[in-house]
Amino acid sequence: MNPSISRRTALVSALFMASPLRAFADEIDRRVGLPEASAVQAAEFEARAWRPAPSSVEIPILLYHHVVPDHAQGVLYVTPDGFEQHLRYLRDNGYQSVSFGDLADGLEYGAPLPERPVILSFDDGWENQYQHAFPLLQKYGFTGTFYVVSGYIDHQNFMTTEQLKTMMAAGMVIGGHSHTHPALAGAGSARLHDEVASSKAWLEDRLGVAIDSFAYPYGSYSASTVAAVKAAGYRTARTVDTSTQARADSLALLPAVLYSQYVNHYRGNVELASR
Ligand SMILES: [Zn+2]
User: What's the gap in Å between 219 CA and the centre of ligand 1?
Assistant: First the structure.
């Protein structure tokens, strides 16, 4: 079973168990003043394990494209050496990687997140991510989310189905990034269905797992794009809107940040939040 599905099921059932138990404990409290039965104490302990869900979480959702040794300048490129420096900084400063599913569990159910959570996300499914980013993520004990364009898989310069399965077996997460990488803000309903819902079904069939997260190509979205993403059953979606605040009421419009932006402008927020 997909680990994110089983984790979510466990969370839901724990909540289901906790709330009647807590109601029972409150009822005993009201009637007799003090609970004496150990079952009530156990129930309260159970209930305390689930904190109220926060309305937002400070978290850098880092955004990467190409990870290649020789490259043009620009925000779409990082060298493996440069990427390793990022990972070393994160490790040495106590950051722990989570998935978008973990973040949603935290925002929807109050599931515990690490003190300093980080998401590493990679767009487009470039083969150089498999060659250069994947081994470094493993070396430093981080997981990443790879947003792949379903129509590019098994094509030159892009990852193969087997490579995606190898990464999944090592704990990496695959997300959807449309079928042909159009700007979706102006797309009509038939096109949206192909790029969002059909692409999700195609990926799930090809990879044998639920695809729960989406990234908007070019960061382009409109109200109808967001509605199509939700209707297709994606639990979370990532934009390229720059922020480090993930909001519970905006799981379909999660922000992203470049590493350089993060260390220069935002890391104080996360480091303060975890004090
Ligand atoms: Zn893209």
Answer: 8
- 225 three-state secondary structure: helix
Distance 257 CA to ligand 1 centre (A): 14
Rounded to the nearest angstrom, the distance between the alpha carbon of 259 and the centre of ligand 1 is: 17
Q: What is the per-residue pLDDT across 101-114, written as a single tens digit (0 to 9) for each?
A: 999 999 999 999 99
pLDDT at 270 (0 to 100)? 73
Question: Judging by DSSP bridges, how do beta strands 236-242 and 213-215 pair with one another?
Answer: parallel
What is the pairing mode between strands 145-148 and 173-176? parallel
**Other C-beta atoms lying within 10 Å of the C-beta of residue 170:** 12
Span of 7-16, 24-33, 139-148 with lowest mean pLDDT: 24-33
Reported pTM: 0.82
Q: E strand or H helix at 118, and its extent?
A: strand 117-124
Q: What is the rounded distance in angstroms from the CA atom of residue 144 to the CA atom of residue 150?
A: 18
Q: What are phi and psi of 130, to 5 degrees?
A: -65, -45
- 235 C-alpha to ligand 1 centroid (Å): 19
Give me the domains of the chain, ranges plus CATH numbers: 3-48 (no CATH), 56-273 (3.20.20.370)
Over the stretch 19-76, which tens digit does the pLDDT of each residue have?
A: 444 444 344 334 444 445 566 666 555 555 556 888 999 999 999 999 999 866 788 9
Protein residues near ligand 1, an ion, with CB under 5 A: 123-124, 217
Q: Which residue has the higher pLDDT, 214 or 4?
A: 214
Helix extents (H) in the chain: 3-32, 38-48, 80-92, 100-109, 127-128, 134-140, 161-169, 189-192, 199-207, 223-231, 259-261, 267-273
